[in-house]
């Protein structure tokens, strides 16, 4: 699982770099992994996310939530996340690749096991995500 400070840092970096970008192509499960966990059918992620504009990224516990209008991309549990600029070669193996209209991309690969969940807002029944959203962060000022 992503450690809490790591999830906070990654969410801030994503928020600084990709907010406002429009998703053009999503490729999920290109390199099948026995311990990659998805919400629903990963082949549906393109139709769910294509055309969405990234609104924000936020951490909840050891997870990173990326919002694109009414869709959620939730990353956690052993997921390595990489940003690729326009000229960068995309990794040949990945479990999730999100390409943006400006030719930049975000890739995610599973290390040992991990979750790459994409769903419409309100559709997730992942209990750890729900609990993390309800509780205050130990890093908050409250």
UniProtKB/TrEMBL annotation:
Residues 2-116 form the Formamidopyrimidine-DNA glycosylase catalytic domain. GO terms for biological process: base-excision repair. One of its GO terms (molecular function) is zinc ion binding. InterPro entries: FPG_cat (IPR012319), FPG_N (IPR035937). This is Formamidopyrimidine-DNA glycosylase catalytic domain-containing protein. It comes from Clostridium aceticum.
């Amino acid at each position: 699982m992503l450690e809490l400070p790591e999830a906070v840092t990654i969410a801030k970096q994503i928020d600084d770099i990709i907010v406002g970008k429009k998703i053009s192509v999503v490729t999920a499960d290109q390199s099948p992994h026995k311990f990659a966990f998805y919400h629903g059918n990963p082949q549906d992620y393109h139709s769910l996310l294509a055309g969405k504009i990234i609104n924000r990224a936020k951490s909840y516990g050891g997870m990173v939530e990326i919002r694109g209008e009414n869709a959620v991309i939730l990353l956690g549990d052993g997921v390595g996340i990489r940003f690729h600029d326009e000229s960068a070669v995309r990794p040949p193996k990945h479990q999730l690749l999100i390409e943006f209209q400006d030719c930049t991309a975000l890739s995610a690969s599973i290390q040992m096991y991990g979750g790459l969940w994409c769903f419409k807002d309100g559709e997730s029944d992942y209990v750890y995500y729900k609990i993390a959203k309800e509780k205050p962060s130990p890093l908050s000022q409250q």
